[in-house]
Known about the structure:
This protein has 246 residues and is mostly helical. The protein is 76% helix and 0% strand.
Amino acid sequence: MVDWLALSIPFAYLGILVGSLAVFSNLYRKNKATRAASLAPWFLPHLQRNIYLTLLHLEPEAGSPKVPDSVLKAALLRRATEDIHRLVAIRNAKQALSTLLQRGSVGDDLWQRFQRAEKEIEEELRDVVNEANAFSPNWGATIFQSASEMAQNAHMRTRIDEIQAQAAPEREWWERRKADIQSSFMKELDDDEAAKLPLTGSININNIKQSLAKGGSDDDAVLVEAGGPAAQVQGGAKGKKKKGKN
């Protein structure tokens, strides 16, 4: 005879275990979803998308015309251009962020924010394609090409503005540098010309006369200006003294 009471105990244990795991898994998923929703977004609010949706759902007032399709297309193109910028940022950051996550340099919160931003940009691209096809068939296949060209032109204009803004300070620096180089070059030329002049000196005749009038000894020195032949003057003075004694 089968003992059902003995068999019910393991089944009851398994049922409690499975129920506990299910409750734990449900609470964990809810907590994870709540935590992910509370994380800060990866990008700032999508202003271009908000402008397009506002224009698209704008109700015309009494007597006012509807928003033209050309304006809506231009707004959608600006929205696609912003999506291009965000897509490029996502692709550039994915490899570096995954490497940092493997090394443990960043936390799971940052990786969850990035994954959520990646999913949002994918949904945004699909939405833009659908909106473009709604305006004209097959426009969704080329809208991002046009948006990419617009993004490149905007980047080039930004770089040109930055270069032009730096042109005036660079010109002033070069003018100062050129003036310093010219001044240094002219100074070197003057020094070279001064070095090539002959070293000439003139004898101070007054000092020689005073020395002779005093009848100085052989140790007396005759004062001459810089560069003069002092030895010859002193020798001549000694010879005159000896003649005077004779």
